[in-house]
């Protein structure tokens, strides 16, 4: 496939842009991408996406740099978005992107939030494993307290319940 | 309150000022970002088919909840959408779209306003007067539970609720308070205060949220971090910081009154004079004057004006509300003239009692 712009060099970068509410797909060579970058990506005022882009480990194309290793990398099979597009918009394409780009997102989330594990609300349906895990942790701290207070009968009871819960967690 | 009432009514719930600390804390807001699993996030709804699918999925889910009513943005006029923005019920971004696939979902009491297909598929919001973060969370949480029964949320066991922007992942919750801080602003202390706030993982924004100016000495303080903290942690942190800022604002007010009595009284009375006697006035000027007047009322320098009337005034003088009240389109100059009349009319309610 050749570059949409110069039509002579092979295309190495796939670009998806939102332009006036429409999606524009372009396949470019690295030279043209760098040239076009100035006009395409300096839309002004969009400092948050740029900042987020840098969180993903690369700056926007407007800086005149192209990183083919990422550009030629995988896209999300559900929504078709690539990691480079995510970097440019500072937004993911769909919930599946979180699985597909998990390894790239992990450091990003750590840099933004200082954490990578959700501890808040769980939906009523689903999230069964986490609910069990949280229950186990709760019982474990109760177990410690029971042992410290020499309530051995209660401790034994708690220990059995923890074992049970761990079994059903494994089974999932 | 239907969406229509929210648009037309001169006041909505948060403007009643019936909440704790409502002299300084104008509103408490909770916003929960939720998305539907497997469907492209709103910024990727490029073609009509995709957009329709997302919209229909939401509508199907809402259908079984009698308390909720869903309206497309194309059912509202430009003016009506702007009025919702001026009442702080939707974001600037959402007010600009007339798309049939973006919309607003409200409950019967009007305490919940959900933006559909803004940055995320759903943004559940609850806005209450005064410092009522826990109450606002409870309302938003209840609606979230209802929606979850009818929709497939995007949720990851490790990362929590998945959102379009990674800055919202986890709880998907943004808790915020709108504060009126004239004394800290006047004495140039807000820089120090806001720096301290930033170190506690909170951020300060202007009157209409992200990227807007702090008009009328109003500041929005909200949490930055959404992953790794529980909803309770986030709310408690913001709550504690808010009480601290309230203390600093009140202390500064007291000091101003002790050390600069005449300058303060002069400033407040001049602003009151301009506000009540101007014949041509811009909205920014009103917000600046109203800030001084509110301070004067709080410190009993001026005769009492109920906060709900000042809140009503703050919204009534904005361009879309003015034009709705006047019943016609007005250019900037006409608005500035009409605005001065509206101010007099609203403030005359005070004298009547």
Can you describe this structure?
The complex is a heterodimer of chains A (172) and B (353). Chain A is rod-shaped. In chain A, a hairpin with a 2-residue loop joins strand 1 and strand 2 (22-28). Chain A is mostly helical and 172 residues long. Helix content of chain A is 53%, strand content 8%. Chain A has three domains: 1-42, no CATH class; 48-113, no CATH class; 127-171. A two-stranded antiparallel ribbon of chain A has the order 1-2. By secondary structure, chain B is α+β, with helices and mostly antiparallel strands. Helices cover 48% and strands 16% of the residues of chain B. In chain B, a hairpin with a 5-residue loop joins strand 4 (112-116) and strand 5 (122-129). The interface between A and B is large, with 41 and 43 residues.
Q: Output the strand order for the largest sheet of chain B.
A: 2-3-4-5-1-8-10-9
- Please trace the helix and strand order of chain A, writing H or E for each element: EEHHHHHHHH
Instruction: Tell me the radius of gyration of chain B.
Output: 21 Å
Helix-and-strand structural type of chain A: mainly alpha
Q: Uncertain runs of chain A with pLDDT below 50, 5 residues or more?
A: 38-46, 58-72
**Strand/helix succession of chain B:** HEHEHHEEEHEEEHHEEHHHHHH
The neighbouring-strand order within the major sheet of chain A is: 1-2
The tally of strands of chain A reads 2
Helix share of residues of chain A?
A: 40-55%
Whole-number radius of gyration of chain A? 24 Å
How many structural units, i.e. domains of chain A?
3
- Average pLDDT figure of chain B: 93
- Put simply, the count of helices of chain A is 8
**Please, what is the average pLDDT of chain A?**
75
Largest sheet of chain B: 8 strands, antiparallel
Silhouette of chain B: globular
